[in-house]
Amino acid sequence: MKLVTAVIKPFKLDDVRAALSEVGVQGMTVTEVKGFGRQKGHTELYRGAEYVVDFLPKVKLELAIDDSMVEQSVEAITKAAQTGKIGDGKIFITNLEEIIRIRTGETGSDAV
Fold first, then answer.
1. Global confidence as pTM
2. What CATH number did the domain enclosing 88 receive?
3. In terms of residue numbers, what domain contains 97?
């Protein structure tokens, strides 16, 4: 089992969700986050005053999926989230030791 964590631009969330549904991903956790990478924020003008926005709004997706679905899921996220501009995001893949469904006590891939 793998945990796929993707940090993407907020307006791409619906496209990514649809692409993941097409490849068979049944569930995900979505969190609104803020951060920056090479973008390093930007300056904005508000009521005549200029100020720096260091942390940009992003969306973090977390998917617990079977090893056999990792490649398809990463490809779906990449294609759906890509704009070709800086700040498109990142995908992190980590191993999951165990998954337990609280309601039934199922473990492993049965719990997903």
1. 0.84
2. 3.30.70.120
3. 2-111
